[in-house]
Amino acid sequence: MSVDTATARAYAAAASVRDPEIRVLSLAELGILRGVEVTADRVVVTITPTYLGCPAMDAIRGDVVDAVLAAGFTDVEIVTSWSPPWTTDWLGDDARDKLRAAGIAPPAHHAGPAGRAVPLVLHRPTPCCPRCGATDTEEIGRFGSTACKALRRCAHCRETFDHFKEI
Amino acid sequence: MNADHHYVLRLGDDALIAAQRLIQWCTRAPALEEDVALANIALDQLGQARALLTMAGELEGRGRDEDALAYERAESEFGNVLLVELANGDFAFSVAKMLFFGAYQNLLYQELSASAEPTLAGIAAKAVKETAYHVEHAALWTVRLGDGTEESHRRMRSAVDEVWPYTHELFTGDEVTEAASIAVRPESLRPAWSELVDEVLTDATLRRPEDGWAPTGGRTGAHTEDFGYLIGELQVLHRAHPGARW
User: Fold this and answer.
1) Are A63 and A110 members of one domain?
2) φ/ψ of residue A95, rounded to 5
3) pLDDT digits (tens, 9 = 90+) for A57-93
4) Cβ pair B230, B85 in contact under 8 A
């Protein structure tokens, strides 16, 4: 097996792993899979977590190791890289559609803030309801079921929904 | 003295102790949504602490990892500021701590994200976005309580007055910040911090407290009485069962 073929196979295995908290997205779609290198039988997978304290990282590491081993490799190392930092701008349009279909309002484009703390109002667009599409939604909780999501309610259909926060 | 190691260790200690205090709100917050919010903010702080303590261990070069640094140091070896270790008090007191500390961290991480040291710059670039949410959250509560009922105003004002003296230590430089090649001078962050905090306090109909008493000692390991209990709770499991995993 050539190195290129092996790399493609290892990449495909790692890329297909689903995010443990947002099951509709693969690690590749989420944008946290940053690289896969194969030398001899050793596979090094580089991941950039969404948040420094992302509690899903241990599960992700385990799932990636399992997937790469299942693809026929014997030695897998997971490397965590913080630079460049992950941003929701790395989510592609396909991924955003999948989030919406799963009832999660996707983050706005290019809203990755400079990070400057602006008191009281961070000017972000209001997300639409992923169920009925209404634009009139309100925030119930800044931090929702996971650190990366906020909890909102639609004023039109009255359903609550998660919003993937821009970061 | 390995100043870079000490500097990063302090940053990690600030985040670790802030996380440990915040998580004590778990199941005790005024509403379920707030419980979740505080736990998530604590989780962000813990994530920052883990990355920074790991880096501090590498800079030290003596084989200590994040766990060794968090669980196996004595009270006097922690270099966090006193502000983060203060007991939680009422909800307003915790909000005041979160506002003052979050604003400081956010400004600090902004500067560090331009660091020539790539690991530190990467951690800071991530943390600056996380802390922007913390500041916003704390600012919203400060205004809601300050510009709320007579009782909530009284509590928020008293919290701001009581926490204020501890903010001075955030901006106090010493031989470590002078010597560390990767350090941001803490004094340099103060003008932007004051501007941000003043804006929130004004919106919250609160007055900015007078500067006066300025307790220090956290950076050199002279901590408050409450800190001993916090560290005891943080370390008890690891000390009873070294290397325990689950």
Assistant:
1) no
2) -65, -40
3) 889 999 999 999 999 999 999 998 888 888 899 998 9
4) yes
Which residue among B40, B135, B199 places its CB closest to the CB of A143? Answer: B40
* CA nearest neighbour of B30 among B129, B145, B191, B107: B145
Q: How many domains does chain A have?
A: 2
Could you tell me the two tokens for A167? 């970061």
Task: Note whether residue A88 is domain-resident.
Answer: no
From chain B, the residues in CB contact with A119 under 8 A are 135-136, 139, 196, 199-200, 203
Total CB pairs under 8 A between chain A and B: 115
What's the pLDDT tens digit per position in A121-130?
Answer: 556 678 899 9
Q: Which residues touch A128 (CB under 8 Å, ≥6 apart)?
A: A105, A134, A135, A137
For residue A117, list chain B residues with Cβ-Cβ distance below 8 A.
102-103, 106-107, 131-132, 135-136, 196
Classify residue A91: in a domain, yes or no.
no
One domain, residues A66 and A115: no
Q: Under a CB-based contact definition with an 8 Å cutoff, are residues B75 and B231 in contact? A: yes
Helix (H) or strand (E) holding A140: strand A137-141
User: Domain containing B236: what range?
Assistant: 3-240
Residues A71, A22, single domain; the answer is: yes
Instruction: Give me the domain span that covers residue A7.
Output: 3-80
Name A38's bridge partners.
A43
Burial class (CB in 10 A: 0-12, 13-18, 19+), A5: exposed
Whether the bond into A84 is cis, omega within 30 of 0: yes
A76 and A8 within one domain: yes
Domain CATH number, residue B198: 1.20.1260.10
Give the distance from residue A84's alpha carbon to the nearest chain B alpha carbon, in angstroms: 6
Q: Looking at residues A125-144, what average pLDDT do you find?
A: 87
Mean pLDDT, range B4-32, rounded to an integer: 96
Number of domains observed in the structure of chain B = 1
- pLDDT tens digit string along A47-56? 998 888 888 8
pTM value is 0.90
User: Mean pLDDT lowest for which of A2-6, A104-108, B31-35?
Assistant: A2-6
Q: Say if residue A114's pLDDT is above 60.
A: no
Three-state DSSP class for residue B88: coil
ipTM confidence: 0.78
* Structural domain contains residue B246: no
**Does A9 have pLDDT greater than 80?**
yes
State the Cα–Cα distance between residues B124 and B113, nearest whole angstrom: 5
